[in-house]
From TrEMBL:
This is N-acetyl-gamma-glutamyl-phosphate reductase. Residues 107-150 form the N-acetyl-gamma-glutamyl-phosphate reductase dimerisation domain. Gene3D superfamilies: NAD(P)-binding Rossmann-like Domain. The lineage of its organism: unclassified sequences, metagenomes, ecological metagenomes. SUPFAM superfamilies: NAD(P)-binding Rossmann-fold domains (SSF51735). InterPro entries: AGPR (IPR050085), AGPR_dimerisation_dom (IPR058924), NAD(P)-bd_dom_sf (IPR036291). Pfam families: Semialdhyde_dhC_1.
């Protein structure tokens, strides 16, 4: 419905979210940046009385606690008060959710879920799975560093 709003600057998305009663936002900002952007969008929407739903692609809302996030990413979470409002899952696999927003689980977890959930749902495999994931030299979803990029 709002195809022209794709890939708009933060302030334009924020303005849109305050005008439409129901909307969905996919945030693909980097880890450590996404939480503050989403927090400002949701704060503006709440003030306006609108109800957007968010799918965050970064790791910012994958953990249930700010302490767990900080242990892994070595910096404080940008919006710890929002953590309880996110469920970490592949959205297509959620029949219902107790939270209004979704934190995408990341590449390895998503690949595992996309392959295994249909098999489990159809009863084609036992419920205990063992997965071995291997990344290429450019993996890890971060800035190029010596350990992951080999120009």
């Amino acid at each position: 419905a709002y195809g022209e709003a794709c890939f708009q600057p933060h302030n334009e998305i924020q303005s849109l979210l305050t005008r439409v009663p129901h909307s969905a936002v996919f945030c693909a900002a980097p880890h450590g940046v996404s939480a503050q952007l989403i927090d400002s969008l949701l704060t503006a929407a709440e003030t306006a009385g609108t109800r957007p739903r968010v799918v965050d692609i970064s790791a910012d809302f994958r953990f249930r606690s700010a302490d767990a996030y900080q242990r892994v990413y070595k910096h404080p979470h940008g919006a710890p008060q929002r953590l309880a409002h996110f469920t970490c899952a592949v959205p297509e696999h959620l029949a219902e959710s107790s939270t209004p927003h979704v934190a995408h689980p990341g590449c390895f977890a998503s690949a595992t879920l996309l392959a295994s959930v249909p098999l489990l749902a159809l009863g084609l495999t036992p419920p205990q799975l063992f997965v071995s994931g291997v990344t290429g030299s450019t993996g890890s979803g971060r800035k190029p560093v010596a350990g992951t990029h080999h120009p």
